[in-house]
Amino acid sequence: MEGFSFAELGHFALILALVCASIQSVVPLIGAARGDAAMMATAPMTALAQFLVLAVSFAALTNAFVTSDFSVLNVVQNSHSLKPMLYKVSGVWGNHEGSLLLWVTVLALFGALVALFGRNLPPGLKARTLAVQAMVSVGFLLFMILTSNPFERVFPPPFEGNDLNPLLQDPGLALHPPMLYIGYVGLSISFSFAVAALIEGKVDAAWARYVRPWTLLAWAFLTGGIALGSWWAYYELGWGGFWFWDPVENASFMPWLAATALLHSAIVVEKRDTLKSWTILLAIIGFSLSLIGTFLVRSGVLTSVHAFATDPDRGLFILILLVIAIGGSLALYAWRAPQLQGGGLFRPISREGALVFNNLLLTTATATVLLGTLYPLFLDAMDGSKVSVGPPYYNLTFVPLMAPLLIALGVGPLLSWKRADLWAAMARLKLAALVVLVVAALSLIMLEGDRAYATLGLILSGWVVSASLVEFLQRAGLGRTGPGAMVRRMIGLPRAAWGMMLAHVGVGILVAGATGASLLTTEVITTMRPGETMQLKSLNLEFESQQEVRGPNYFALRGNFVARDADGDVIARFAPENRRYIAGGQETTEASIRSSLTRDLYVALGDPDGTGGMTVRAYIKPFVPWLWIGSALMMLGGFVSLSDRRLRIGAPKRSGARAGGDARAAAPAPAE
Amino acid sequence: MRRLLFVAPLVIFGVLAGYFAVQLGDDPSIVPSALIDRPMPGIDTPPLLTDKPGVKTEELIGEVSVLNVWASWCIPCRAEHPLINQLAQRDGITVHGLNYKDKRADAVAWLDELGDPYARIGFDESGRAGIDLGVYGVPETYIIGPDGHIRYKRVGPITPQILEDDILPLIRDLKS
Lengths: 672, 176
Description:
Chain A is of the alpha+beta class. Helix content of chain A is 61%, strand content 11%.
């Protein structure tokens, strides 16, 4: 370390990145306008350079955290020498400045990936896309250097740091921000492609084929990131909820909904050369929602449990960035989009029609979430009253939108392009319908008919899973060939077909998980002393003992519980903890969860009641593991589809206008 | 007409940005307490120390008093404590403490270390009194008028500026 300072190196690298990004945002644009190949060729070079210097900067900050360099203010505020190594590293992005650095690094990473793998892109489109991407970088780098320098020094350096918020000291949350950022910053590439296409004034099937893999990549990571965050909330907050409709959760969910819509509408552009201006708009909206989310989380206009330390000056800076980026791109859209020529016509009942229906519902859902998130803000601006919009609003608006979407999800993939026969498609789902009836009957018996919504949720789940499987199996020749031939055909099916099936099945499984977690939970909250027992349905839960334990940077009160079934056999043991962190004195709850395939048993400790007893919360949560299994399948589906040869970034250019010419798009045996 | 459709997203975003601009700078975490200018809820906490009474609502009526909610595990409480000590030394100002979700031994050791400015200290081990008062998190500071109505509430540590600009003038007004 002597004579060489990593922190200043990191700061210097940031400024260097700004220089690279500035060049990258101007020169290739001029080059593309003039048709100057040399100028356009600066785009990939500067994109790679920008990413490399940002990687150096990121490494410098990581180094400061790992070595507990308390002469760096950011490390003092967010780290502690006793903290386990994993959380020293995750502390890098567990704060405003560091997470911004991660943000711009991911932004530059995507630019570099396009530079590396986009060899087949037309040079004009590539230059413009990278230039637009760099403009976003310039904005955020300026923001960092001017208001949020992560390398600020402090003198004299203190001996010890303030520690990272203990709620964030968790393996799930250590990985959540990078995944989430790869997801929602990754949408910047779709945005840059859209803006570049508007500048060029040309959107065709080839454009859609360039954009889809990037959107898919971002979408898969966003799915994983949101699922990790939800998993964290589930076991760390101690209330057994997995989704709270908190503004910050919504900030990641809205881009996800928009990206999901974009994935589907881009298929229509690719296959049928229509819905162009709509797809462009979705690409702009998707990343705009990421930006708005960033603004909401960091400006302090909304309160949230997840909010970073806020500062109105920073808020104003991001707002100006928002106005330039979103306002600018939407203005460009208003100007150029009307000139985009629409392609093939289609009937309402057709694959396109189903995808439009999907898009309508998804965008309405996005708008609903946006309205719910911002409503407190609107009301506050009007008359200063404070409200919060919670689950009742979303149950009334968001959930009903999902039901028709899930029904359509089962039928859509069976419809043929242009014009389809709904009844023929439905007839092919007889098997799926049969499965659904069985699930419905079983659910009704299980639930004794008193929980209609839960029944509906499980039926929808069964429908989505079985319809997706039936569609896939039929494509592999179900009922037409023998099992051996079917397996061979299945293996031969395009990866995109596998991906779609996996993702759709994932959605169905997720729906069951959400139904179980929110509607079918059995909960008992009571005060217990060691030695006492409680009854949780047929389970007998005994509070055996409590003990004080010491962790690396906290003290904890641990309760030991044992659950027995009706015969008195031990089913599971639990050791929930209440932790108090030494550095900041904050308390966290560590719930103890035992998962099986069909349910979670969940025990969390509350506060002492002052007379020797403890508040104990115990839950039986059916199907909750399915939430994570479903999310993982969706993510897997995204990656499998991404590995499809046709979508591979370097895939040779093909004419995509021939409807049905592509095995992936061809509905098996169109009805006519 | 078709053109208007393409301008709509821009217009919607414009309205949104307008709202953002208006809201910027307002601190949304300042929640108007439902208890301001209302009688203080009835709490009755046992004493923390053997030689000082606990905090009981009825006994606070008749004079202007400051109620400071704190805990030994709370670092911001430690930061604001010198100011609470100063406040209590001023003439005619009574400061009471409510020890929140703490262990008795830890709380006593904390007072030994940092000084005990309080006239009364309630021991709210379970946080029950805190719930009645509507405590979000420690530290919190309340000013209670002679009529037993809550006149002021501060969530978070007090600062020299808050002490000079808000707390002392209000106490002066209430006394006159």
